[in-house]
Amino acid sequence: MRRSLIFILTLLGLTACGMTATATVDPVATGRQAYTIYCAACHSVSDVGNESFGPNLSALYARAQSEPDPGAWLREAIIYPNTELAPGYQAGIMPMSYATDLSAEKLDGLVAYILKVGAPQP
Predict the structure, then answer these.
(1) Which residue among 64, 87, 94, 108 is least packed, with the fewest CB closer than 10 Å?
(2) Which stretch is the leader sequence (predicted)?
């Protein structure tokens, strides 16, 4: 009887621990991964990535800062990249598939990443 009670209490304790433990997701880390997969081949952020095909995303960061909600503006710029073009670039070069290819988590992470690493470094 005593072993059964200990076993039940142990299971309850493990279950309670599992129910209260939550994994914290770092949106910047998620964004860094999304940037590496989807963006770095054509864009750079600060000194990371390639600038030969697309504009530096630090400039996108700077443009977003002129908006009341920089994060919302960046989301729209990523989802609909040909709406507002960077000077010197033409419509149609940036793929439109990001509206469906990026999950909300990846999109939020990408925005967080650009807002962090696109900012001028002191």
Answers:
(1) 87
(2) 1-23
How far, in Å, CA of 12 to CA of 17, rounded? 9
With beta carbons less than 8 A apart as the criterion, state whether 79 and 72 touch. no
Distance from C-alpha of 113 to C-alpha of 60, rounded to nearest angstrom: 12
DSSP 8-state secondary structure symbol assigned to residue 55: -
CA angle 110, 94, 82 (to 5 degrees): 90
Report the predicted TM-score, pTM, of the whole model to 2 decimal places: 0.72
pLDDT in tens, the chain (122 residues): 554 444 444 444 544 455 444 567 899 999 999 999 988 888 887 666 566 678 788 888 889 999 999 999 999 999 988 888 888 887 778 876 687 888 999 999 999 999 998 887 76
